[in-house]
Amino acid sequence: MKKVYIETMGCQMNKSDTERMFGMLSNFGYSETTEPKTADLLMVNTCSIRQLSEDKAFSLIGLWGKWKKQKPNLKIGFCGCVAQQKANEIFKRAPYVDFVLGTHKIYSLPEIIKKVNAGEKVCECEETNKTEDKKASEFHINRVKSVNAWIPITEGCNNFCTYCIVPYTRGRERSRAPETILKEVKDALNAGFKEVTLLGQNVDSYGKDFKDKKYRLADLLKDVNAIEGKFRIRFVTSYPTDITDELIQTVLELDKVCEYFHIPMQSGDSDVLKAMNRRYNREQYFGIANKIRKMIPDVTITSDFIAGFPGETEEQFQHTLSAMEELCLDYSNTAAYSPREKTVAARWTDKFIDEKTKHERLARLNEQNRKCCLASNKKFVGKTMEVLIENFESHKGKNVITGRTRNNKIVHIPYDKDLTGEFVNAKITGCKTWYLNGEI
Ligand code: SAH
Ligand code: SF4
Ligand code: F3S
Asked: What is the pLDDT of residue 133?
């Protein structure tokens, strides 16, 4: 049996692709290893959302290239979003790479491996505007052992926000067939998973490209909810103005769908939002977030923000801080703006914010985020909440089980038995910035 190691960078979409690649490779006599040094095949599944993530991928394969000098039979694969974007260029920069595999044709991996083992160099970065549902059904998925399974429902994005590279690395938006999704959900549940997260760059767009039927996210949620058994359903990521009243109502009504929305706002300033090509302004985002809060008790809303977008003034930045605060957002991912090749905003070099200011703004954003998280956590102290246990740890003689509430809060509970995969009702006794404390 040969050994394969895959290093996964970036978002859940990449994590999901990696699980599929492991599945395909296991058909071809490769077993998974967590020790890169012992592998016969090394692969990196790259992310290009920011320059830093791209740089990390190149420095990693640089190291692997050195190992290859001692181990000439070692094969190296460069996959994912940076691969899709740079294709053949990768070989120029890293001649020791054996194959480059973009995001569109991951199901070509078995063919690629055959060729690579015969001594060929392969680059498969062709774009497609179709889903690969049929191919997906031919292979099993080696899911990471956990309680939550990631299930992609759409691939790609049509939004072209001016800072974002995803439409270039993942292509146009395509919805996977409901039958494929429902089968993957059922397989995951049969394998013991207790939660499924439906995944897409913009899940509310699900089904917009079906010509023969009207079947949207709310319909899919109803069909997944109808599957028997005790499990949870989540969906990410939502685009603010695409969240319909029907969707909110559906989340409220379906027992398995959790009270949780991830709705990136990106900036709290309407002019910056316009420059970002986001299709909403500050007031509209507030309107949607407040409506969700009003309709769904105990709902949490998390977000993403970018600090230092080209041209962002101090006053505009303060609008982002105040939005976070006024909306009492439960958690936010934050990042300093990073110019990306091909994107519109990357051309506005005369408006770039200097690194120092950008990072100083990011630090203030993080400080506000910490305050919001703590305030959000405090709201739940004293309540009894359902927790799905994900982990058991013994540390310095203390045993702790950790899990998540329906609204995605992390809870630590002192307990002596490993209850991973079980649902418990916990009384929330206290909290810190990033988690709740509970007891059962
Ligand atoms: N589809 C999701 C986000 C996908 S990318 C959405 O529409 O919100 C994940 C996050 O990375 C984005 O929400 C954004 O906050 C951040 N991001 C994207 N491009 C970036 C860039 N060039 N610089 C800094 N952060 C970026
Ligand atoms: Fe990127 Fe915008 Fe698409 Fe999200 S919606 S993936 S931020 S282009
Ligand atoms: Fe995801 Fe990074 Fe690609 S965030 S879609 S892996 S650019």
From this structure: 76
